[in-house]
Amino acid sequence: MARTPTKKRRPAARSGTRAKKPRRRGVSRPRGRVKRRWLARLIAFGFLFSLVAGVYVLYLDHTVRTKFEGKRWAVPARVYGRPLELYAGARLTGEQLQAELRRLGYRKVAHPRQPASWSQSGSRFLIRTRNFQFWDGAEPEQYIDLRLDGGRVAHLSQADGAELALLRLEAPEIGSIYPAHNEDRVLVRRDQLPPGLVTALLAVEDRTFHEHHGVDPRGIARALWANLRAGALVQGGSTLTQQLIKNFYLTRERTLWRKLNEAVMALLLDARYGKDEILGAYANEIYLGQDGSRAIHGFGLASDFYFNRPLGELDLARQALLVALVRGPSYYDPRRNPKRARKRRDLVLRLLAEQGAISQAEARHAAAQPLGVTDQRGRGRGNFPAFMDLVRRQLHRDYREEDLTSEGLRIFTTLDPWVQAHAEEALGDRLGKLEKWNKLPAGKLEGSAVVVDAQGAEVLALVGGRKARFAGFNRALDAVRPIGSLIKPVVYLAALMEPARYTLVTPLEDTGLTIRGGDGKAWTPRNYDRKEHGQVPLHRALANSYNLSTVRLGMDMGLGRVADLLRELGISRPVEPVPAMLLGALSLSPLEVAQLYQGFAGGGFYSPLRAIREVLDAEGRPLQRYPLTVRQAVPGEAVYLLNRNLQEVVSEGTGKGLDRFLPSALKVAGKTGTTDGLRDSWFAGFTGDKVAVVWVGRDDNRPAGLTGGTGALQVWGDMMRRIAPLSLELISPEGVETVWVEPHSMMRSGEGCEGARPFPFIKGSAPRIHSSCSRGGESGLGGFLRDLFQ
């Protein structure tokens, strides 16, 4: 019989001991295995982290190298004005010379020993110039002796007496064409940084620059302690390398992640590049101020912006001020906060003395100096917005787009700052007086002015409005307004080009007429004085700006002929050949009018107005430009007759009001222009060396209440009085002869005959019938037959 199995009993636990629980089957606690598993995970995570961090550091390293070794900055194009040329006999006043020297940042001293300095004793000037690279060669530094007499250069030589035929002062910088982000720089190399500036910068911003590796923990602690002791922020904790990284590579956000990136990139930059390279980059990158929308970066541009001098010409006090601005250009702005800026500058000087970089005496002497900041904001301040607008347009007109994308261009223009300043002043002053005299609302009148070199067609000045230094609507280029009687010289020129039919003494009918257009509408012109003047000689009709005789003459010549002549003289705008065109129902800008009248002043030659002389690339090579065509547009003989007539406009006609402004010996040719409702007031004219156009009116096109003679002529005369141009001495072409004519009968007369006047005629067109005075009493048919068969 089988046995029933029995359960084994556990032995009873001993007294005082805890019975062990039975271990469950299949369950264990491998503690060593768990630890090994977590250690593996930690190693894997560490490896992955190191791999990611390594890749990220490599990425940062690539970022540092790519930008630092590539093209670091988009350098703006520098724009220069016309250089002042000095030679014996050149027209120059002491006032003009001093203004040019101040504009260039030259210093007046007792004895000029440094470049860009000058002294004066009466009419004698001793000047040490700067060297300058022009488009046609270098102008070396010179020490010259210049003497003035009677508004001209009477003597020019080297200070040691050596002969000097010609000297050009450096071209004044008048502006820049900036990259899209509106940052500006004057790049300097490390060896161009003044030692005093470098010493001050390191003393204040990074004492251990040459010892640390991009980040300086001890410097951070030291700066913290110094700031606590001073109770103010006197030292920064970031190294120059970190500051460069922050400004050059990173954003302005204040986060721990950005600070970590900054530190890593500073270490990488310091490891890859030398201290001089880093310092040079810092000197060009550091932000030091704001000029409107233009950011001022780098010590080179800041020196020009605040002191109107190159960096190498700064003394210790000015160098210390630039270093002071590093801490906060806006907070320590020396123009807005001069006391705050001076306190910071003096702190920089005190730190230099404490560190033994300068003596206490040098620090006290520099601290006693004024800040030295100029009122004008540097030579590249962009104070000529209207002219710069023209430069931009002509760059795209005359040069290839692919060439203009190059950076660091140097653009030499035709702007004469002396003429520009007088044009701006005359326009601003006269508009205010015109409003007051004519009881017009203050600030409603606007105007523009263009001044051109009469022979070279170079634009010397361009004023776009009464607030000339502010960018805005450029009336000189974009105010396209009816020109009124300014078109009349073109009508009369068309007639004078046919000498067999018309001369200056040909009688014209100044009587009423009505013209019906193609649409059947009648047009009845009238004279300004609402009168008819009967039969008048051609020259008097233009001098007095008679409308009726002009319309009759224009219709006889043909509207198409007048329109063609406008195109020949450089007007590219479409011209609608309608009768009203003859009295100025043609709208042009002041610059286009200047182009038209430059053709008269140039003897009938068409020369495109230009604002650019030359453009150099960053390596100093001239850019190739599209050719500018200069051509004989109209015969010189006819233009000479017209110009004599335009001189009569000023001496006896509608332009006679100029005698209030200009000396009687100064000969001028010109024409007034007035439009319907007295909305536009014009004057266009020329002297021996200048062509100038002035427009006055209102932007809202409401009546200004001014004729050409009571408005624009006043501005023109005041402007020319200030500029003091040459007299217009017309030279008769070979194909022109002068004949004395009796004014009433228009017969040929003699020089001694009563009332006789000399008139120019294209040869073969002068009157052939002699007056009784010139033929000893024989006149009429007998005189005619005698002349006919002589």
TrEMBL record:
Residue segments, region Disordered: 1-30
Gene Ontology molecular function, alphabetical: penicillin binding; peptidoglycan glycosyltransferase activity; serine-type D-Ala-D-Ala carboxypeptidase activity
Originating species: Candidatus Sedimenticola endophacoides
Location of the Glycosyl transferase family domain: 181-351
Main location: membrane
Compartments reported by the entry: Cell membrane
Name of the protein this chain belongs to: Penicillin-binding protein 1B
Active site: 205 (proton donor), 485 (acyl-ester intermediate)
